[in-house]
Amino acid sequence: MCGIVGAVGHQQCSEMLLDSLKRLEYRGYDSSGIVTIHNNAIALRRAVGKLFNLDQELRAAPLAGEIGIGHTRWATHGGVTTENAHPHVAAGRVAIVHNGIIENHGMIRQRLQDAGHSFSSDTDSEVLAHLFVEAFDAGLDPAAAAVKVLAEIDGAYAFAALSLDHPDLLIVARNASPLALGIGDGACYIGSDAIALSHLTRRVIYLKDKDFAVVQPDGPQIFTADGTPANRESVIVSANPGLVDKGGYRHFMEKEIHEQPDAIAHSLAAMTDSDGRLTAQMDETKLAAINGIVMLAAGTSHYATQIARYWIESLAGVPVACEVASEYHYRQPATGPFSTALAISQSGESLDTLMAMRHAAACGMTTIGLVNVPDSTIAREADAVLPTRAGPEIGVASTKAFTAQLTVLLCFATALARAKGRLDEASANRIHKQIQALPGLVGKTLGLFDHIRPIAHQMAQAKSTLYLGRGALYPLALEGALKLKELSYIHAEGFASGEMKHGPIALIEDGLPVVALLAADHVMTKASSNLREASARGGRIILIAEERAAAEVDYADAVITVPDVDPLLAPLLLAVPAQILAYLTAVEKGTDVDQPRNLAKSVTVE
Ligand code: F6R
Predict the structure, then answer these.
(1) Contacts of 54 (CB under 8 A, 6+ apart)
(2) Helices (H), strands (E): how many in the chain?
(3) How far is the CA of 9 from the centre of ligand 1 (A)?
(4) Confidence at 282, pLDDT banded by 50, 70, 90
């Protein structure tokens, strides 16, 4: 993770760099820093904690200079301290910022220390600064120095370096971690994504893996890792709103929960063709040829794939495997049964998901990226793109992107089933009508905040909780538990309710909160029996259910209901009260809802 920014040729660039960093704070918020060159000296400010602290530092001691780089950190190597905050400076003349992990840093550090370099941090990144010092000491020009450095490092990186040896240019490079070059008017910029640059320019060049560039005010010179000049076209990226505000809500998460009716409606519109039919954004014959899908994702997006598996298998009869992206290619999976890989990611940048998608492509599969950020790396690399139109999601915990993903996946499943001849036009239209009703139904569930508040008040006292669901509500139980633990730091585990009797039921003791998800579907009776078993052993049942399912339950301690809906759509609707419960519990506990500890929004390390 981490966010990096840089500028060359921009008058008094430090304030602008801070603005760019604010747009990247979703990538990490352990510490931050900016370095500039002014009066032929390196000038550095760093602060532990959120960007607000760096802002204060800069107000107390402003930085001058027309060239600079900045960083917001999500710690990987080395604790959260000022010494470990980027930028890192070596020999008082080379500064670097880095996103990623230099996997062979230990060996390089040892070699450099033996050669007399002294290090001031515990990070893997600092070796980059020393490697450039070494290269410049050897008399290499910037491009030759970059070739030498890149030849020595392994791992994922996007980095930027500046040096007193060449005070009018930045050296930048990327491999697996994202990096955008922004072309301005007499100035050039760099950022981990185009959003970081959107207040400066929309003309952007994306470097390919292992490219590097020497960036000057009049433009970048781009090279492949061996120093061969490379031509990379610039693109005009879509206008984006840049910094988004909370719109009067207390937290971004609260705002984003409320934006779900719109996120669903806009995502549905993107999946509806000009004849008003659901589409998979793909040629019908190609769609009909899909014989198996492997779905690749992480975290909440992974749970969306697990729910979608129920839809795709039951509607279209196409086999689906849901893979945790970080495990996928290292396992050397048998890929024979799958023609298609569907990579699902809000950010479109999760490195685990990107690497898994690349592996699937290398195995000959057609790749589809389902992303919320249109210019993201996954969107650029996939053979086809399915968009969610949830708008920028700022809260670290995913909410509206999740329900937008589910909307798109249900549309995809329906279009696939029709293309396969498994669903007639009338049935496809019936599902379409039900999805169209979703924004209104989700709107109704937003009225549940007051009802859930006292339940959250009690939940906030808990040390541990269980979430149970059966059928398509099992993955929703996993998602509900993830939301609660990441926001409130209360231990929460999700189980398939039918699995309880095979072991986890031993966890149940008097008063343990058990969040039970129930819909009036074909497994309701069995799921309800499982919940009764938990209740009989002292579990305090917090039922989140459709009205008609709730009416069948007489053992719940608290009941949260949503309007009745076709069982197919129940996971989408029941997701909302689960989000509200996690949100309000976190508010009760006073945790940092939008930026929970140890997390970052976009995870670009493996
Ligand atoms: C949890 C959450 C994460 C993300 C995961 C994947 O609330 O937001 O689990 O879902 O890091 O991120 P994307 O979807 O951007 O690939």
Answers:
(1) 18, 21, 32, 33, 34, 45, 46, 47
(2) 19, 24
(3) 36
(4) confident
The answer to whether the CB of 397 is under 6 A from ligand 1 is yes
Please state the rounded mean pLDDT for residues 385-389. 96
Does residue 354 register a pLDDT over 80? yes
Across 24-33, 230-239, 512-521, the highest mean pLDDT is recorded for 512-521
Q: Which residues pair with 558 in a beta bridge?
A: 542
Cα-to-centroid distance, 396 and ligand 1 (Å): 8
pLDDT in tens, 157-177: 999 999 999 999 999 999 988
pLDDT(241) > 70:
no
pLDDT of residue 242: 62
Identify the DSSP state of 403: H
CB 535 less than 6 A from any atom of ligand 1: no
- Annotated catalytic residues are 2, 601
B/e letters for 285-312, b = 16+ CB within 10 Å, e = fewer, are eebeebeebbbbbbbbbbbbbbbbbbbb
Q: In what order do the strands lie in the sheet containing 31-38?
A: 41-48, 31-38, 67-73, 3-8, 188-191, 180-183, 203-206, 234-236
Using CA atoms, how far apart are residues 88 and 131, in angstroms rounded to an integer? 12
Cβ-contact 560, 538 below 8 angstroms: no
Q: How far apart are CA 427 and CA 431, in angstroms?
A: 6
- Alpha-carbon distance 573 to 567, whole Å? 10
